[in-house]
Each structure stands twice: as C-alpha cells, then as structure tokens.
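Problem statement: downstream parser choked on a complex file, so we are re-checking the raw output for the JFZ run. The parser issue turned out to be on our end (a line-ending mismatch), but while we're here, posting the original submission so the record is complete.
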Amino acid sequence: MRLIKRCTAAKWLPVVLVLLNSAGTPAQTTAELSDSNTLQQRMAWWKDARFGMFLHWGVYAGLGGVWNGTDYGKEMGDASSEWIFLTAAIQKQAYRKYAEKFNPKNFDPSAWVNYAKQAGMKYMVLTAKHHDGFALFDTKYSNWNVLQASPYKKDIIRAYVNACHQAGMRVGLYFSHEKDWYHSKKVRHNAEPLQQSYIELVRKQLTELLTNYGKIDLIWFDMGINAHENLNLMCRDIVRKLQPDCIISGRIGSGLGDYRNLGDRELAPPGMNGFVESIMTLRLNWAYDNNDANWKSSTEVIKMISKTACRNSNFLLNIGPQPDGDFTPEEKIRLANIGAWMKNNGDAIYATQGAPFKGEYPWGSLTTAGNKVYLHLFGDIPKTLRFPALRSKVDAAQMLSSGQAVAFEQADEHSSLTIHLDSMISNSVVPIIALTLDSVANFDLAKGPDWLPPIERHQTRKQISGVVENMNGSGFDLKATDTTMHFSLNENIEYRLQKGTTIEITNGFNLIAGKPYTVVYEPGLSNVLKIILSKNPARHR
Ligand code: JFZ
C-alpha cells in the first residue's frame, strides 16, 4: 500500500514543479527546487505520526553505567550511561571484553515492535551505531561489530528492520556520524579536521545501512557540528542519493536536517512552527543503567505527549533495553499505560495540527484536525471553561475517550464558547474534549492566550562541590567554591554515597562535617538530593 502511494506521488511531482516554476518563483537550481518541493512530501508520514520510540542499545547496556564499581551514569550528574567508554576512560581492549559478553538471548525485535504499537507509537529509531563506534549491523569496514566482536553473531539491525517492515512500522536508524570514539578521536568535542580514513568509514557504513536493509524511513544523525560541514554534507548527499524519501534528523548539523531537534529531554515550548521533535528519556539515562531509579510516571509521560502535540511537535520517547534484549518491567508497564490512553485519545494526537497561539491556557491547550478541535486538559481543570478565541460554530462537544456529551453554550460563531466541566466524568489522565464544528476551525488569534508555561527540561541535575560545614541534625550548609548552598536535611532524603568502589544509599545522618562532597541535586526539588563523596571532582562537569 505504502509503496503504491509513494509511486503515485512521485509521478505527480514533475507537474507540480512546472506549475510552481511558471508561477514565477525566483530562479533556483534544480536540486534546490526539487528538494524544497519534496520536503513536505517526505515529512508527511512523520508529521502525522507524532509519537515514536527511541532505542539506545549496545555494548554499554552490559555495563549499566558502572565501571570498576564506580557509577558514571546521568543520575550521578555525569554523561548518560552510553557514554561510559569515554567517561570512565576505558581502554579499547577492556571495552572489547564487554562486547564479548554482549549476547542478548532475549532480543526479539517483533516483541519490540509490538510494545511500540501497543503504546501507539508510529515510528522507531534504534542505535545502529552510537559514539562507541560499535556497529549493531554487519559491516565490511570494521571488525568492531556485533557479528565479529560479540558471541551473538547475528545482524541486529537486519532483524529489527525486518520486524518493522513486517508490521508496517516506520524504521529509523540512529547513526553517530560525528562521534566515533573507536575509529576517530576519543574526546567530548573535536573541532579539528577529521581524518580522511574516518570520513571514508562513515561513507561506507552509511552506504551499507542505506543499501543492505531495504527501505529506511529516517536516519537520526547526532551531534553534527558546523566545523565538520564536509562530513555533514557528505552524509546528507548519501541519504538523498540512496533513499530520497528518507528523512534526516536536525542533529546532522550545518542546518542540513529535514526537521528541528530540541535539546535533550527538552519538551517543546508552545507555538512551534515547521517540523519539530522533542526527545525524552523515561528515566535519566538513555541507555540501560543499573542505578537509575528516576523513572517518570506514566501520567507525566502522557502529559508530555499531549503537550507536544498541542505545541506542534513530535515526541520521541526513549527505551533503554536490558543487556539481554528485553525491555525493563518499568518500561513495559509505562508503555502499556500510555497505550491505554492513546487508544482512546489518539484522534487528538495523530495527524493533528498544534494550537495556533503563542501561549497556553492554565487548563491546557488544543489540537485541530479538519472540523474538529480537541481541547487537551493537561493543566488545572476549571468548573467553567470560556474559549473566546474560537470563531466557529460548535455543533457538538464530547469526551473523546467515552463519547459522553459535554454541556456547552454558544449562540453562534460570534459568541464565546462556554463549556461546563463541573459535572465532567473522566478517569482519563489527560481528559480531552472533542468539539465538532460546522466548518474548519477559525480562530481569533488576538483573543488567544498569552500565558507562557515554564520551559520543561526534564530531570536535569546540577552539581556543586564543597565541604559540609555544620551538622546539627536539622540541616547543614554545604560551602561550595563559588556559591553557598543550603540544603535541609531530613530522614526522607536519600543520599547516594560513593565510597571507594562501592555505592551506598544512605540518609543524611551519615554525612560528616568537614568532609568534601559533590552534591548532585535537581533544581527546585531538594528532596531528591543525591550526594557523591567525590574522589575526583574534575570528572563531574
Ligand atoms: C546525544 C548523545 O550524546 C546521547 O548519548 C544520546 O544519544 C542523545 C539522544 O543525544 O546527546 C546530546 C545531544 C545534543 C544535546 C545534548 C545531548 N543538546 O543539543 O543539548
């Protein structure tokens, strides 16, 4: 079905080009013209999909963020667990030993696709190669791959792509083009010219991925920098040449992506234009981690899906599968809960347009599709909701999840809509009211909301190093080098202490005045304070 549709669209394309040209657009090269005209076409499925699954999985999953008993994970304020090859300064030979343990007996890609489908996700993106350079696919150009360096000896990407194709799931591959700590420089940032041999490796491996696995819908490039524009351009050209319909993520760099990626774990703010994707972890780390208990709740995540759709952004939710290939129980239960909500409320998410306003209402926001307006009540639900910005006649108002009628008043399209929510019955995490209009929605933007919710960048951690000055059982001051912080102490606060090679969870009464600590805290949430006894504060940046 999908293929037939695409062919029809491709046949029409030349006609559209001619029409645009004769309409007097400024002179452009053929390449630019065809590219700008196919962007909308290429992005159509992605825009409608709205919700996808990100997967970070590789050799690092087996380390779980811990090296020699030291926790290097995001919950300790360092980089996420998939960075451990760099952050723990592991030697190649020692890291290769972990590849020798990478034998995911329970890897079942059709189960993965099923979890994604059940959750209501429409595309998936798996790390074909992350910064550690380990290829989860068969590559002729490096033996640092799952077939040659691990006992598993099967092409994981092939199995994953096949499972997606079979289930009609859109397939994405994450490919770290900029950073490869195995074949290129092993540093956090490298703005120096790249080695020609490395650029050739990228060319060859990207070509393998786009040649050997059938249709790939999206390549998720990451961390591209303008200083390496030649690399970024090469990658863009390879994708365009080998699979012209394949979408390119914004993080390819040099402005060459098809859409815009926001920062890590940053939820889109209201009023996004164009193609935008928010990416989010389910806990702090992207990849599997032994010690990260910071799970977001199903409710939090459902609100994020609702908010991002209202803000005109896609939402890519991350899973970090276990070393054995299965998802964690925490992930499974959240995906199931999300799926239950999506099943009843998906009409307000898929193939919708975000709200046309710059701001939001304290009760939430909306999406539109044809003659429907969906009010997403992710905020404080009022007894009476007034909506003067709508300039269309409402024929019906219903709870989307149940179809139950909702009481409203509106004389005509010129009078303000009033919805009565005092008797609303909903057990939905985010209740959605579906308005059926007598025509396509028309809004008076001047009457729209101008309230801007705070930027949500989820579960970031800040760090401060210093010495505990005084302990009196009810509070202590941590005197830091440039700031003085005060944290109150009580027995409900959990502290994470690193002592030598073991990690100990303890309460504040075990802290000793006069000793140096590195404190990792969540701004605004001092009750999730974690304290690391710092052996080497320089590691924590
Ligand atoms: C990158 C990776 O380094 C990380 O391991 C993970 O794969 C994540 C999805 O992407 O990390 C980034 C990339 C960009 C920003 C921050 C972290 N950013 O733009 O803020």
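For whoever reads this later: Residues 1-33, 499-503, 534-541 have pLDDT under 50 and may be disordered.
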